[in-house]
Amino acid sequence: MTQTSVIQTFGDFTQQIPSSQEYLTLHFSPSAAARKRRWGNYGLSADFLGDYFAAFFPGDELPDSKINQRDTVKATVSYIANELLENAVKYNDDSTGLPVSISLHLYEHQIIFHVVNFATPAIAEQYQAFIRVLLSADLDEFYMTQLEKTAMGGGGSSMGVLTMMNDYAAQFGWQFQTIESMPNVVKVDVMAYLNV
Amino acid sequence: MHIKTDDYTIRYEPESATAFFQGLLRLDGMEAYQPVMDILLNAIESASSFTINLRDLEFLNSSGISMLSMFVVKARDKGTVNLVFQGSEKILWQTKSLKNLQRLMPSLKLEFV
């Protein structure tokens, strides 16, 4: 049986992630435990990913920093993995029963994060609207506008994505895919690229 | 006034008008930060200066950064409190994100060690 699907991509999205010697994928089943318990697991997983990938880097000093390269990779991977997982889980439609996943691929000067979740069409539409604004805005200006908006109590400001891009210089790509056989589910692929 | 869990501790010390944050803070969304926010808002109720010591806070998620930004704006709009954030140059998120809070309130003092 052939399936048709509708695909939309934004930003810097790689269809075929180049093969790498080192990669890891973690899957999270949405209904396995109470949300509060699961939330703690995302943080632990992010820390694990940070520790795991940091081990490939030397403890060399970095210019203008009191944090060596290994510890910088550790903290950056842990922050980005945690934010990506928090977002994936927050916007996941648990009723699909499909797992959220995060994969990290290590290259000589780059780490690629790939996160997949399944959202309702309405959530996916909101996310796309945000991405369109983000990609057409000046990042620094948009960051401050959204931070001020958050501070005034306006929710949904997506400070996670903005801190990853602005504070950690991560590049992003997104793909939204609707599969014909599941019209009420949108597969959301997020890619974040970190130069190391 | 304090909050203590396996992951983090937040302790307010009235004598020095300082709130000490320690550990790993990644609560589930901004609403989950309300008890933390309440400690901070209570502290600036009557104080003319207030210090937030983050030097032992190894991790803060973006919801936590949003919570701090909300607090900074409330302190700014109150207009009567001198705010100091104490950070560590050895903790990456602080070196990356704290300076943006200062942009919300230019009189906010950042002290890094």
Tell me about this structure.
The complex is a heterodimer of chains A (196) and B (113). Chain A has 196 residues and is an alpha+beta fold. Chain A has a single domain, classed as 2-Layer Sandwich (Heat Shock Protein 90). Chain A contains 5 helices and 6 strands; from the N terminus they run E-E-H-H-E-E-H-H-H-E-E. A 6-stranded antiparallel sheet of chain A has the order 1-5-6-4-3-2, with helices on one face. In chain A, a hairpin with a 3-residue loop joins strand 3 and strand 4 (110-119). Chain B is an alpha/beta fold. Chain B has one domain (2-112): Transcription Regulator spoIIAA. Chain B contains 3 helices and 6 strands; from the N terminus they run βββαβαβαβ. Chain B has a 6-stranded mixed sheet with strand order 1-2-3-4-5-6, covered by helices on one side. The longest helix of chain B is centred in the middle third of the chain and has 17 residues, at 62-78. The radius of gyration of chain B is 13 Å and the shape is globular. The model of chain B has no long low-confidence stretch (mean pLDDT 96). The chains are: A alpha+beta (196), B alpha/beta (113). Chain A binds chain B through residues 35-36, 39-40, 43, 65-67, 71-72, 75-76, 78-79, 82-83, 86, 90, 143-144, 147-148, 150-153, 155, 157, 159-160, 162-163, 166-168, and chain B through 7, 24, 26, 28-30, 59, 61-63, 65-66, 69-70, 72-73, 89-93, 95-97, 100, 103-104.
